[in-house]
Fold each of these.
Amino acid sequence: MKAGASAGARQTHAMAETTAVARQLDLAGAAQFARNLARTLAETGAPAAAVRETLANLVEAQCVQCGIRLSADDLLALADTGEPDPALAPKAARLRQGYCARSGCESYYYQITCRPGGGVDWNKVLAGVETAAQAQRSQAAEDEAERAQAAKRTRRRRLAARVAIGVGIALVLLLIRQWATGGAIPLIRQPAKYTADPASVNERPPE
Ligand SMILES: [Zn+2]
């Protein structure tokens, strides 16, 4: 049974090397895809020049509507983390915005075809690209939740500060009022319990 499973794995591996693997790419995630593809290929131990060569020889990225194709350099310009210069890399600049590289084409999808060759296991590479994209999506969601929490904390602190200032002002006003009217001020002045007219002390009670 173990031998059979291993033979099956060998067969799958052999198939991966002889069959092209195709994916449809939503252009909204084109830059992320290109970046993860270049990174995943590099992680298989290929030097930068080999990554470019693999992209040039084995990867075809074509618009499903207008049929324009991206070169390895287009893909690498798209993978670059810097903002592409529309003058130097007009295709990458348009793709980065989620549009087809051809000005005027309204397609949102490209067909990615990875041809066999160079010992690249495309199923494995594309699975790695998808895993990286998933990790980035959940990281982005975590960051967003963290930002929302931080904003909430800031709002609460501001509200608490405003309440404290309001209470402080009320206390000062109360203090001024008590001072002016002769009322009690805790720790400073005891309340006058009663007032007596001194003249009334000398008055004799009526007989
Ligand atoms: Zn197009």
Amino acid sequence: MKRQFFTPGQKVPDTGIYFAKHHGHKLAEKFVFLKGGRFPHCPRCEQVDFELLQAAPYIFSDPDFCVRTRKESPGERDDERLGKIV
Ligand SMILES: [Zn+2]
């Protein structure tokens, strides 16, 4: 697969894990980006390359994990619900 790099301000093409490679001041780090967002600018170097490492769906876009399909208790938060074994 051909490697693709993205720059700050470009639209995120796919949800997944990306490498953020700064120029000179920081080691590359992995982050999750959601499709349709924008790659952010770095205030320190203004030059960051983003590379898609692994496309993966956002968990709540999956019908099995979509919170709207589950019976919710009043006042229960998403993070509390996710930690429970049903
Ligand atoms: Zn930077």
Amino acid sequence: MVGPQRAQGRAWGGGGGAVREDNFESPDNFMSVAVLAAQSSKDPSTKVGACIVSQDNKVVGIGYNAMPNGCDGRFPWGKDAGNDLDKKHFYVCHAELNAIMNKNSADVKNCTMYVALFPCNECAKLIIQAGIKEVVYLSDEDHDKPATEASRRLLEAAGIVTM
Ligand SMILES: [Zn+2]
């Protein structure tokens, strides 16, 4: 479902300072894995990470936005050039794609994806086809873009839970 709480996602952390049980298998830690993965991105403006978690709480895939394998340095990272061919968008592989392709399990069916930014429509298609059943996101800053609206429609139609 697409909640009405746009531009906030889930409230992470904030245990009120209380000491909590140390448990790696928590949503907070899985999102932390995604956020840490984002730091490896060479994108100067938007670093996004994704982490796929199986039903038994194992991390089975991690990715961040990057140029295709072997293409580093061959394509631009800018987004403001006059010509679309000189912008990053045609070339970059999003974090979600890389996390799925990097999976270390046979498949990612019924897994949960933790991702720093609400997925675009292209990644929504990948998420659906990969059999992922839940998407947990941190930021929804692209909420008003048509691609994000298309993504919401796709994910909702496919019955994928977003939170
Ligand atoms: Zn995407």
